[in-house]
Amino acid sequence: MQSGNSIFSRLEVKKYILKKNLKRDLPSSIVVFLVALPLCLGIALASGAPLFAGLITGIVGGIVVASASGSQLSVSGPAAGLTAIVLGAIGQLGGYQIFLVAVVLAGAIQIVLGLLKGGTIGNYFPSSVIEGMLAAIGLTLILKQLPHALGVDSDFFGDESFFQKDNENTFSAIGGALSHFSLAAIVISVLSILVLIFWPKFKKLSIVPAPLVVVVIGVVLTIVFQGSNYALQAKQMVEIPVVNSWSEFTGLFTAPDFSQILNGKVWVVAGTIAVVASLETLLSIEAIDKIDPIKRVSPTNRELVAQGTGNMVSGLLGGLPLTSVIVRSSANVNAGGRTKMSAIFHGVWLLLSLLFIPGIINMIPLACLAAILLVTGYKLARIELFKHMYHKGWDQFVPFVITIVAVLLTDLLKGVAIGMLFSIFYLLRTNMRNPYFYKIQEEGNKKNLRIKLAEEVSFLNKAAIQVVLNKIPKETNVIIDGSNSRYIDPDVLETIFNYKHNAYTKGIIVILENIKEQYTVPKLNNKVIEEINS
């Protein structure tokens, strides 16, 4: 009876938690849907693909990837960082159907990478770089969405690159928008921002998500401005494909041309997409885990398998390659999402909106959606984050700032790579300064020097140890103590043994204490691993 009661109580607890989370996940899914919709369309347009392909990718990213993923807050879909690759690949391969084969193969490669534990590379991204990337995405959202908030939509919605296809850059586009703004768009965006800020402060009203209120206000004001000199144009609105029948809907899908599967160019494109999409996904997962209020850790290998599955399904249905995307995921976090149900529901809303309410969706002005992203960007690049990183010291603050500047002026992957280089520089600098501690004892006319090595001595410590050993004065007794060391790198061991062999020429006597001739990397035994997994 007790065991039956305990099972019943556990089920009740799970139902309660699910119900409690759904109160957060359903409103959050609507916010993510509203943000994802124009992004899917904009990225498809910029990639030279059919608009419907962007929607397919968003739907698959929501329903398929989120279901298979171990991340609770990540939202997947078409990524702005892949637009240049996709656009070039479609032209290079000679057709969209051939390109879809590469997307399917890229998914298969990602699944293999996940099964081979390739996701562990995500554990090696420095915290300062991830924080810098988040702040950079926030600033990018602010800078890129300002023209849309002003009613100037010459650049596609969701672009993140510094140099735009319309021969403008991030800053010149803002300058141009200030001289060609739309009064209606400004009114809509300003009211939207005010609602986003103040609506959540009223507890009774906050049951309805503020972004949904913003969209309603945007649609109403669009109708109000119709027929006036300030009326919004079609390009300033969401432009979802209108489907009038089931046959029209099914006709929008495109099948891959698998007759080209042995084409070498297809495999090169597939490999490129797999690597870039995997890196962007791992960076996004690491970033979203950082802003997760519950501080959960997502399984990265499982994420690669989920992303690979999603890309295979997307490619088979005629969609674009997808990744975990920081913009949508951070909107999910800021809207209060708690579990993967938010991402799954957002995919369902994308599908239902396409099938049943395309006319209403096409009345949503981009200005109000830009306002949502402006507020999201501010939360990612909040001033408190800069203060926090500054107080952590220069070794954290410099890579943080460099990453921000590099991402703003290049793109996500290049910016992170530059930030990583600076982070590695400070890592090497720290290792050179802090590989061990030593104590000098004077006895008569001689000096006794004890060098006590740290618990882990890597090859990064080799240069610093060589410097100290070379500075030891003649006629000194040196004790190199490895009693605390669980591992000493072979290069460091060679340095120590060579020094002992040659030190007698300077009258230096070297004694090695608790230093083995060979060390193996410590591993967790199977029992410990089983306990951790359980």
Task: State the separation between the terminal residues, measured CA to CA.
Answer: 25 Å
Backbone shape: elongated
Overall tally of domains: 2
Q: What is the total tally of β strands?
A: 8
Number of helices: 21
Alpha-beta classification: alpha/beta
Helix content: 55-70%
- From the structure provided, what is the oligomeric state, counting identical versus distinct chains? single chain
* Strand order in space, largest sheet: 3-4-6-8
Question: Rg from C-alpha positions?
Answer: 28 Å
Main sheet record: 4 strands, mixed
SSE pattern: HHEHHHHHHHHHEHHHHHHHEEEHEEHEH
Average residue-wise pLDDT = 89
Spans where pLDDT lies below 50 across 5 or more residues: none
Give the strand content.
5-15%
Describe the protein's architecture and organization.
The protein has 534 residues and is α/β, with parallel strands linked by helices. The protein has helices spanning 2-47, 51-68, 83-93, 96-115, 127-149, 170-179, 183-198, 210-225, 246-251, 264-291, 300-317, 326-334, 341-356, 358-361, 366-380, 383-391, 394-409, 412-433, 462-471, 490-502, 526-533; strands at residues 76-78, 322-324, 436-443, 446-453, 456-457, 476-481, 487-488, 509-513. The chain folds into 2 domains: 39-412, no CATH class; 434-513, STAS domain (Transcription Regulator spoIIAA), CATH 3.30.750.24. The strands form 3 sheets. The protein has a 4-stranded mixed β-sheet, with helices on one face. A hairpin with a 2-residue loop joins strand 3 and strand 4. Helix 5 crosses helix 10. It is elongated and about 100 Å long. The mean pLDDT is 89.
